[in-house]
Amino acid sequence: YLKIESLLGIGGNSLATALDETPDVREVLLNKTKERMDEAQETLERFVKLNPHGDGKNSPLSEEVASLREQIETVRVYSRSDGASRFAEGEPYTAKEVTTKVIFISRPEPLYTERARQDQVTGAVRLRMVLAADGTVKYIFAVRRLPDGLTESAINAAHRIKFIPAVKDGHPVSQFVTIEYNFNIY
Q1: Cβ proximity of 142 and 64 under 8 Å
Q2: How far is Cα 122 from Cα 70, in angstroms, rounded to an integer?
Q3: Which of 14, 19, 80, 168 is the least buried, fewest Cβ under 10 Å from its Cβ?
Q4: Which sign does the torsion angle of CA 134, 140, 144, 150 carry?
Q5: Residue 87 to residue 126: CA distance in whole angstroms
Q6: Count of beta carbons in the 10 Å neighbourhood of residue 2
Q7: How many CB atoms lie within 10 A of CB 169?
Q8: SS3 of 47, please?
């Protein structure tokens, strides 16, 4: 499990860096990220086989495994080297490449889970995502994670973000964004 988390973290950092780089540097970094995600997927499969209790649909472990699978698949989408065809709506732009950046209308806060409260977990979850030209949030990847359901809570909140899409050359376009949710106990 720690290996998977580590590979996702390293892959997430490489991914965040790669998506803001020039195309030639981006391709090299994305290929390395893809290799890490392939290894993470293989490790996850072995992890699931060794933990039969993770197969139950309502167990905390099965929720974490589902979240990890989603994260690995999201990184695979980002790390494909086939250019614009990897996204149905075309290649998302960075904030530097658009004429008008995304405008947030609402950004719901995530819920603090009871498990995290009991374990007194604090910190930040950092998410990288695409705010698509059609007004939907897609391809959410947790660059920095927290345990006890806080990462999943942040991802759920991110899915509910409302925004006005970025504009380039007079047309709405998809844009990469990174947001952070802070979790503190008061």
Answers
A1: no
A2: 23
A3: 80
A4: positive
A5: 22
A6: 7
A7: 7
A8: helix
Helix (H, G, I), strand (E, B) or coil at 107: coil
Q: What pLDDT is attached to residue 82?
A: 45
CA 157 → CA 50, 66, 154, 164, distances in Å? 32, 17, 5, 17
Short-list 8, 20, 138, 130, CA closest to 75: 8
Angle at 126 between CA 124 and CA 128, to 5 degrees: 170
Q: Over the chain (186 residues), what is each successive 10-residue block's mean pLDDT?
A: 78 71 78 82 80 58 72 68 48 86 96 94 92 92 87 94 95 92 90
Nearest CA to 8 out of 65, 68, 49, 61 is that of 68
Dihedral of CA 57/58/61/65: which sign? positive
Amino acid letter at 170? G
Q: Which amino acid is at 53?
A: H
Q: Which amino acid makes up residue 97?
A: E
- What is the distance between the alpha carbons of residues 111 and 93, in angstroms, rounded to a whole number? 30
